[in-house]
Amino acid sequence: QVQLVESGGGLVQAGGSLRLSCAASGGAFSRYGGGWFRQAPGKERELICVISWDGRRAFYADSVKGRFTISRDNAKNTVDLQMNNLKSEDTAVYYCARHGTPFAAVSPRSSPRDFMHWGQGTQVTVSS
Predict the structure, then answer these.
(1) How far apart are CA 124 and CA 94, in angstroms?
(2) 47, 71, 101, 113: most buried by Cβ count inside 10 Å?
(3) Can you state the percent helix, strand and coil of the chain, rounding each to 5?
(4) Both ends of the chain: CA-CA distance in Å?
(5) What's the pLDDT tens digit per position in 20-48?
(6) 89, exposed or middle or buried, with CB in 10 Å at 0-12, 13-18, 19+?
(7) Which phi and psi (to 5°) does residue 80 adopt?
(8) How confident is the model at residue 111 (pLDDT cuts 50, 70, 90)?
(9) How crowded is residue 122: how many other Cβ atoms within 10 Å of its Cβ?
(10) In the prediction, which pLDDT does 1 show?
């Protein structure tokens, strides 16, 4: 019933910026934490960042801290990811996800297993 759809991926030069958006339908996003993950070919899926249900708390992986910003608009049922100063190592498929428990806390230790609904992914390619 719950569907998440990512958009905004594409090809960008190193040092450039890209903004990804995740739109939810079929269920409320506002009561749940959200997250962004990425997976490069031959590598495991990794956590990029998470945001609490009310947007008051957010946590980032060290690799993107200071460059990426997660935000949400509960009125629109969206969770966005602003990516600045992109590097070639950022090339991956990016996924958004909704936490499985309403009002649950999020932390840097959040696991993909905590997120029960996933988007189909959007490709981000950074050229040098």
Answers:
(1) 7
(2) 47
(3) 5, 50, 45
(4) 40
(5) 999 999 888 899 999 999 999 999 999 99
(6) exposed
(7) -110, 160
(8) confident
(9) 21
(10) 82
